[in-house]
Fold this protein.
Amino acid sequence: MRNRPGRNDLYELLAEGSAEASKPIAAALLETLDDPRFSNLRGALLDELYLLPGGVVLEVGCGPGVLVDRLHERVTSDGSIHGLDLNPHFIDVAERRAELLRIKNSTFSVGDCHELPYRNEMFDAVVAEKLLMHVAPLGPVIAEMQRVLVPGGRLVVTDYDPYTIMAAGPDPAVTARVMASAAKVYASPLAARETAHACREAGMDVETVRGYLQVFEDADIPTVAGVPEVWSDHATAGRQVEPGTARRWLSTVELAAREDRFMIAIPYVITVATKP
Ligand SMILES: C[S@@+](CC[C@H](N)C(=O)[O-])C[C@H]1O[C@@H](n2cnc3c(N)ncnc32)[C@H](O)[C@@H]1O
């Protein structure tokens, strides 16, 4: 599939796999719709897009289309919503979701963000949530996003920083080592820190760079249940810690949950840039 330099990422492997393999991930992404930690983050992204009725917006790495209804509220039926994702199984779900919501002015396409299949200056705004951490290199992707924006158009991007995830319970130094190892499975684990620089390099004006902290204080919240296990597996896959260290880290997180001390915090960076 790939004919460009850069690192493989778990989402690229998922896109090449079966629909069955993508199903639980699509379900987990859709589950975030009911969680205020995600809806507030998305509300902040949507506000920064400055969309008006009649606007034309692109979501890159749209997954199963979690933003489509809220984008529709802003551009209304007079505008249009475009979603692009590498994973054809996610795009199928996004299309079904738009159909169920009776949104007629949305178009979803399978494609790679390194070569956006859109003409120059087509969009008033481009948004990407948790995309850039999964792609490398970043520069050409930002250049593509800037190419498809109208002059004055807005790019709003967010990723979390896997290196600075907090977890109550385990020794913080061990958490840092486990997270640093888990970060190796992402194509661009430093995306949250490097997006603003990549935007400037692409010739964009960076308007704001700010943070958003997602705090989970209950291990049973659907959007965080199972996540520490995934990080522990990623840490082992990242080969920077022994599997035993990752397992012990996980059991201290689980112990904290049993003792009612569970807390995981995930720091996001939101970058807003405009095309001059
Ligand atoms: C963590 S998911 C986020 C999905 C969605 N933005 C959300 O917040 O629910 C990352 C998404 O980026 C997509 N993706 C990864 N690499 C991509 C690429 N090179 N081009 C387009 N999409 C890509 C994945 O298929 C996946 O849907």
Summary: The mean pLDDT is 95. The chain has ten helices and eight strands. The pocket of S-adenosylmethionine is lined by residues 11-12, 15, 29, 61-63, 66, 85-87, 90, 112-113, 129-131, 134-135 (CB under 6 Å). The two ends are 34 Å apart (CA to CA).
